[in-house]
Amino acid sequence: MADTEGAVARRDRARAFVPELLPEPQDIERTGPLTPKEQQTLDRVHAARDHHQVAKWMRGKALAVAFSRQLYRGEDGQRTRQEYLDDEWDGISESAAYREIGEWPVAKAISDACERPAPDSHVRALVDVADKQGAESVARWYAELRRHGQQAGRRVTADVVANLADFLREGVEPERLEALFAPRQLAPAAGKPSKSTPGGRTKRGDEAVVGTIVPHSRDGSFPNLGMSADGASPAEEGGRWVLSVDHVERLSAWITSGADRAQVSPDQAADLLLEALTSSDALAGLDALTSDDFQRWIAARDQV
Q: Are residues 11 and 76 both part of a single domain?
């Protein structure tokens, strides 16, 4: 007796996904609704997609097992973690391995809660919150966000997930999920900063966040940022001003958001930004921002 569509689908779900379940790509001109056979093929396409994502968190768990049980040490007991990664994991760095280890619990929890995996950028946005509040709790919020987006016809982007993470990170549950779809702003983590004072202070809530003056190196070891043409620092003669904690947090959030959208690492995005701002070999063939340009830009906005 021929299999029904439901019986085929149940059998597909009951077995592990294998490449043979996918037919070979073939150009076929079709119109109208999908046939049962086409729907079965599409279901298998989606199964391959989800299998890839599930395999990624399983890879993180596998690394966690190898590291936590110190299985990397090898037959002679002398092999280091990095030597093990070089031998068995295509030479990935320890930091990359630990990043995968940190991501797998929330990736699995989301996969369980949503019955399908989440994009890498969504998982990364929620890792630090899940470490503090538990992967299952964060995954439930993420699943609610996905359901709301589907019902409202709104795309759940990495920025939207980052907004959710901001709320949960502050220990505040969003009253309306729709509010999370508002564009992200380059803003401090909490409170609204006042204008900087001449001493370099800003206010974040009731806490003063202060930039730091350190001796300026003239041997080329630091970029000549914020220095006048004669090499004097406007903050303090012979000094180099360092970004405050508040500035670092705001810039880090902005760079991370842009890097997620461009699908590059935040480190790479930060390097490109600094290159564009400070190097004569700037992006797109443009000249770097000179000290005079920067001074005029600041003066025009400070008068607003």
A: yes
One domain, residues 55 and 124: yes
Closest of 224, 215, 219, 221 to residue 278, by C-alpha:
224
- Alpha-carbon distance 274 to 35, whole Å? 54
Do 289 and 223 contact (CB within 8 A), yes or no?
no
**Residue 189 within any structural domain of the chain:** no
- pLDDT of the residue at 279: 56
Closest C-alpha among 155, 158, 171, 116 to residue 139: 116
- Quick one: 239 and 171 in the same domain? no
- Percentage of residues of the chain with pLDDT beyond 90: 30
> Structurally, how many domains does the chain consist of?
2
For 65-130, give the DSSP string: HHHHTTGGG-TTS---HHHHHHHHSTT--HHHHHHHHHHHHHHHHHHHHHSS---HHHHHHHHHHH
The answer to whether residue 241 is domain-embedded is yes
Q: Are residues 176 and 260 in the same domain?
A: no
DSSP assignment letter at 223: -
Q: Which residue has the tokens 């759940």?
A: 156
The DSSP call for residue 253 is: H
Give residue 147's identity as a one-letter amino acid code. Answer: R
In the chain, % of residues over pLDDT 70: 64
Supply the range of the domain harboring residue 166: 5-25+34-181
Do 246 and 213 reside in the same domain of the chain?
Answer: yes
Is the residue at 144 inside a domain? Answer: yes
Decide if 269 is inside a domain. Answer: yes
Tokens 């025009």 belong to 300
Q: What is the pLDDT of residues 11-60, one digit of tens each?
A: 444 456 677 788 888 888 888 999 999 999 898 888 888 787 778 888 99
